[in-house]
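Write out this protein's structure.
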Amino acid sequence: MEFLCYHRDRPGSLTLRGDLLEEHWSYMDRFAAGMIARGPTFASDGDTPTGSLHIVDLPDPAAARAFAFDEPNYQAGVYRDVLLRRWRNMLGRTMWEFPGGRTSGNRYLVLGLGSGQATDLASPPDLDDLIAYGPLLSDDGTRWLGTAVLLRAPDPDSARAVLHPDRYADVEVHDWQFGGRRA
C-alpha cells in the first residue's frame, strides 16, 4: 500500500531540524526500498524549510502511522502537524525515474484537498513534467480525499493549474525539491 506523509514544520524549529538531520536520514534509510518520493518543502524565499514529504510503500495503515509518528523530527517537536493518506501511484515510477532529473526547473508539491465528487483521477496527458501523481484516499482505499502531485513547472500558478482547482475545498502549492542523502 502506498502512503503520502507530509509533515509540516512548526514555526521556529529550523535549528532543531538541522540538529536532527542525520537521525532523520538514518530513520528514512530503513524505508529506502519502498520510497517512491521524498523531499523538503520551502517558504517562498527558497531557503526556509516548511515541511517534509515522503511517499512510501508500507504494509498497512498501522505501519504508515508508525512511519509518520515515530519519525525523529516528529518525536522531537519539529513538526506542527501531519497529513497522512493512502495514495495511488498513477505514474508507476519513483522520483528517481523521473526523466527530468533532480535539479532542472522549479519543483512543486501540489495538494488538492477533496470535497465532494472525486476529480483528477487520471494523470494529465502531458507526463513530461510530472514527477509523481495520484489520488489521496481513505485508509481502506475506497474513498477519494484529494489529489497529490509532484511536478516541474515554471511557477506556482502553473503548478496549481495541473489540477481543476474549482473542484477542491483547497489547493496548496509548496516549493519542493528532491530529498535524501547526497550521493
